[in-house]
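[step 3/7] fold_predict: job queued, chain A
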Amino acid sequence: MNLIQLDPQGITQEEHSVRTNEQIVELADVFIAYRSQLCHAAMKILGNRERADDVVQDAYLKIIEADAVFDVRQPVAYLYQVVRNLAIDRHRRCALESGFFACEEEGLEVPAPSGTPEAIAIGRQELGRVARALGELPERTRKAFELYRVGGLTQREIAERLGVSTTLVNFMIRDAIDHCRAALGGS
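[step 4/7] structure written:
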């Protein structure tokens, strides 16, 4: 025995499916007829023709692929509203993304981090002075400084490794920094 199920409006599921398909086809026809106007409306919001075309295409797919269609009394107004909402969403997303990502061309104007030959030579001279200053330090002080600055260890970890107090490690690191500054001329 085959039961026919009725929805609250008193129509069968088969009739509902036919109505839904007919409504989608009608909306698609209206959409196609008003496509250029919908693109123009999206372009007013987005300010870009390609993005507007993308939004209109997304709106079309959203309408065509909808699982359920309700009775649309004003299909043109409905389509404009769908396109408008999608365009606003796209505009907001683009604004958000532009805050996180820079345009590729903007990177072309950034100077190279290497600097001028003069800056490279000065940097090498300063590095040599720091290396000589570190060589002048007592072995334990130099080791504490290197573990802290180069090795990334905490003062507690250095104290455990060297078998001294964290206070002494703090003083050794401070002494090493002061000695390096003095070697660089107090800079």
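[step 5/7] annotate
The radius of gyration is 35 Å.
The mean pLDDT is 82.
exit 0
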